[in-house]
């Protein structure tokens, strides 16, 4: 069996077969679980899982090529608190994920879908925020970042319209990353092109 196959067997979950996702069975403990949606090449996941060995991480990414890139870099001893799943995340995620599962949710540089006619494809929509609320633990946090100013405004406005989340930042966003900040591939690329990220953080009320 080649190395990638062995690693896939260890790290990869088929969420559609997990009805419903049993964290204790998967991770072998009751540690808090953090979810990352749209992990890309996995920089955030790789660093975060080492910074926080007492947290379990679930990374969901749509693209097969990126799943392979992530899994290749993972180590079954160093990153044993990580699992990844290939899935297009949408409202149906509640079919596999129990309510009140996650202490933290990270959505780092989600696709901005800049054209107006494509705004309906944006991940951040009220119906999706409803779902995020359901799968988060009470008092849990969501962190979202984007370099796209108009999408940042869209996100800030959507969360302002809700009573079930409160913003950690007075203005609804900050340009200053938190101390433990991990720069992802996409953030680096966009900074080099002159686009600085906006950071949003919300607490489930
Ligand atoms: C702009 S990239 C950012 C990747 C990474 N977070 C970073 O900052 O470098 C967006 C990523 O989200 C993934 N993605 C987009 N929509 C998704 C969805 N609905 N479910 C899961 N992954 C998604 C894409 O395949 C892509 O890897």
- What's the alpha carbon Rg, rounded to whole Å? 17 Å
Tell me which CATH architecture applies here.
Answer: 3-Layer(aba) Sandwich
Tell me which ligands are bound. Answer: S-adenosylmethionine
Percent helix range: 25-40%
> What is the count of β-strands?
8
Enumerate how many helices there are, as a single number: 7
Shape: globular
Elements, N to C (H/E): HEHEHEHEEHEHEHE
**The CATH superfamily title:** Vaccinia Virus protein VP39
Poorly predicted sequence stretches spanning 5 or more consecutive residues = none
Mind telling me the CATH class?
Alpha Beta
Q: Main beta sheet, described?
A: 8 strands, mixed
The fraction of residues in strands falls at 15-25%
Q: How do the strands of the widest beta sheet line up side by side? A: 1-4-3-2-5-6-8-7
| Gap from first CA to last CA | 48 Å
Outline of this structure?
The protein has 205 residues and is of the alpha/beta class.
Written overview of the protein:
By secondary structure, this protein is α/β, with parallel strands linked by helices. The protein has one domain: Vaccinia Virus protein VP39 (Rossmann fold). Helices cover 31% and strands 22% of the residues. It is built from seven helices and eight strands. The protein has an eight-stranded mixed β-sheet with strand order 1-4-3-2-5-6-8-7. It is globular and about 50 Å long. The N and C termini lie far apart (48 Å). The mean pLDDT is 96. The structure holds S-adenosylmethionine. The site of S-adenosylmethionine has 20 residues, from strand 3 and helix 7.
């Amino acid at each position: 069996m080649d190395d990638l196959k062995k690693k896939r067997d260890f790290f990869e979950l088929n969420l559609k077969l997990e009805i419903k996702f049993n964290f204790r069975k998967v991770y072998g403990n009751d540690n808090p679980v953090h979810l990352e949606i749209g992990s890309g090449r996995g920089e955030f996941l790789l660093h975060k899982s080492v910074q926080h060995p007492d947290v379990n991480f679930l990374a969901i990414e749509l693209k097969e090529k990126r799943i392979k890139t992530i899994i290749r870099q993972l180590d079954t001893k160093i990153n044993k608190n990580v699992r990844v799943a290939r899935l297009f995340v949408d409202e149906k995620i509640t079919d596999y994920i129990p309510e009140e599962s996650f202490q933290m949710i990270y959505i780092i540089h989600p696709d901005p879908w800049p054209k107006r006619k494509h705004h309906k494809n944006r991940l951040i929509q009220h119906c999706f925020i409803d779902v995020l609320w359901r799968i988060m633990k009470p008092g849990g946090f969501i962190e979202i970042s984007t370099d796209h100013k108009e999408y940042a405004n869209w996100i800030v406005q959507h969360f302002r319209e809700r009573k079930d989340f409160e913003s950690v930042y007075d203005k609804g966003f900050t340009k200053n990353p938190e101390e433990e900040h991990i720069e992802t591939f996409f953030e680096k690329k966009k900074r080099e092109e002159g686009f600085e990220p906006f950071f949003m953080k919300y607490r489930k009320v």
